[in-house]
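Entry 12.
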Amino acid sequence: MDKLERKDIIDKVTTLLKEIPSSMDIVKKGGNRDARFRYLATHMVDKAIEKDALILSENRQGIAILFKTSKKDDNIWKELWTQLKLVANVTGVKNALDILKTQKYIKNQRPQEGEYLYCWFWGILKEYRGADTQVGKEMKDEFFKIAHDTGLELYAETRGRTNAIVYQRVGFDLFHEWDHPSGDTMYFLKYNPNNPRNKRP
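Predicted 3D structure (tokens):
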């Protein structure tokens, strides 16, 4: 991936993060908030590129980050330096402590044994949303193809009720709801490629 393409993806992820409740919580208010969103987007995109986890729609207006991971990948010391830089440049200390508490609960809802797929981020630029654009369907088919190819369950969370309904409509199962500290409901979803009703795309 060249520098221009990377910059274009970071620009789009920065825009999308400003609409997502969880990133709105994470990014410290006040000061140059745009720069904080951009720092977070850069961190996410670079991590996705490093882990070969970046998924782009054909027209480059839909972006997702889909990790193949497991509980043992969650190594706090390995990531400590990055996390400290995120605290300094994105969250602030108070936010970071709150995030650690909620992240612990969220991670405990995912498999504690074995590998699984995790959709860390999925966004489509505003003018390309909706059934008529097909961007969402194209990306969903790619997620499910990866799940079927690997035989691994795919996990996702959302704090949008409409998003949760859409996820379920396309084949995810809602397996848990949580009263998030923000006051929102968080919906936990998974797609099981081994369920007979879930046909390979």
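Annotation: The first strand starts at residue 54 and ends at 56. The beta strands are 54-56, 62-70, 115-124, 154-158, 173-179, 185-191.
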